[in-house]
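Exercise (ungraded).
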Amino acid sequence: MKLNVQVDVHHLTRVEGHGNIRVHIENGIVKQAAWDVVETPRYFEVMLKGKHYSSAGLITARICGICSIGHCLASVRASEDAFGIQVPDLARMLRLLAKHGETLQSHVLHLFFLAAPDFVALPSALPLVTARPDIVGLAQRLKGLGNAICDVVAGRTTHPLCLQVGGLTRRPDNADLVALRSRLLAAVDDLHATVELFKTFQLPDFARETEFVSLQGTKEYPWIGGRLVSTDGVVKQEREYAAMTNEWVDDNNTTKWCKVSRGSMAVGALARFNNNHALLCPEARSVAKALGLEPVCHNPFMNNVAQLVESVHVALESVALIDEIVATPADAPVSVPVNPKAGSGVGAVEVPRGILYHHYTYADDGRIVKADCVIPTTQNNKNIHDDMDALAHHFAPREGMTDDKLELLCSMLVRAYDPCISCSVH
Amino acid sequence: MRYLGIQPKTPRIAVFDFTCCEGCELQFANKEETLPAFLSAVEVVNFREISTERRDDYEIAFIEGCISRDDEIPRLERIRKSAKLLVSLGTCACFGGVNRMKNAYDLDAANREVYGDKPKPTRPVRAVKEVVPVDLEIPGCPISKAELERIVQHLVLGVPYNFPAYPVCVECKQRFNVCMWDKGQMCLGPIALAGCDAPCPSAGLGCYGCRGPVPDPNLAEFFDMARKNGFSDAEIQERLNFFGGFEGLR
């Protein structure tokens, strides 16, 4: 057993944003094991004050370069809740389709480019471009498809254009949607090839009992709006999100920390799976089974697997959604008129990294008086911090442990959460 | 591989992120159909978001994000010293981006509102060129991968790149869009720099000017037109302030 271990990672690589890992073990005792976020704050909640509802979604999309569609959707949902607006069915379906495109591109980006290199002992996916064009081809096609869905429905993947308070600016051409449908069906083989690839990866054997929070599905696996639920049995309404997050400020972090019933909590694909696995489509459930993912799973590294399971689910559900959208009459409205009024509203959306909340209070001129955004990675940061301590205790006494090996395990732990760090600080 | 009798260089590139959403560097991984070709044209030696390998022998440094905290300044100065060519990548790096809206608020009050009695270090937002000399600016929120590819092609072939000198309206017309002004929306198309292929008006949203102003924009005429279309000076100014690129123009 190695008695003294020192891990000091400044600005961890292959994650979005800036965070540091420090683990210090002396004479076999874990003196320190920390995940700290040092990202520069941007003060989005302050910048939103005085802004018109028509620009809130455009501003908050810029909180995140990866899940900007999710931010835009949470933003317009909060504004619609404040104004008492119900969007037409066609808008609801198109928004969900855009959401699925984002989930697919984000999960694939994480699985192939950020997480996978650790399992094949490479510093990045770049050497695979020449060494394994088959794998890179898989990633390119799947991610390209996710982006194409976003482009067709939302006008653009990064910082969407068509998602507005009241609905969408326009309905996409049926021909473009039908073309996406064929690509989605063809992608099923690519997803199964990805499952075979992930079967060859050895995930670290580690678990820490965790409270998982997500939207609670009723008939469908949940993505946009609804009740909130935790694996410890806490259930809240969307507007009660503050009681499901309980943000506080830590001295060493520019991110806030969150908790519900315990000292920390987790959100994301694994949380959604743990709370809603029965609502996945049969194909996604069989992929979970094939990869050994069973609810309630407390191994954070299995979030990678849950993302792959969800990728299968959203690809197949997108096919069904496109069928419904294409069958909608050509004169069906894609938006409703917006009449702003004073009041407040909340929008909860399951974005790739977990549940996201926007909460706005409006004056009667349709301008924001107060804003609050609670980000998925903000909800995960304390949990990663606590996992780090448990991970150090778990692996440090192992035979043959070295500084480098523990650094890799700690880095893989953070990456498994697919953190969106600049988003978490915003 | 020789191209038109020229042996292209394979420049060593690095990508660094400061205060931003990292959406521009994400565009490096987009446009999947040409990604392998793009990656074969350069050697990526330092790109934290996608690689654990970090070397300092880069020739071209792409800087994403604005500067809003003291510790970012020495980091940026070190990169400036190492790089032969320093490129501001995206609207935040070029102008401050949406982050620049922060400068209109009292920062102590902002800190109290967000962090209560544990304020975090922060400074007014600055563009990269306000801190170190910049050799090339690629605006866009996010940047256009197609334009990035064109610029990198010019860099590896050692040919100067010329940005368009015309406004977004030109590219918008080429896409046969109905004018956003005719639809009753405000649009910065007449005075904003083109090169993006007008994605916003094409999707039903007036231009917000993320690429900054066209050379010599006729602001007086723009204000007149916007007023005639029913917009107040405050609304026009708010739109001009959105991405920070029109700051200081009169």
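Further reading is listed at the end of the chapter. For now, observe: Residues 145-157 of chain B form the longest helix (13 residues). Chain B touches chain A through 58 residues (CB under 8 Å).
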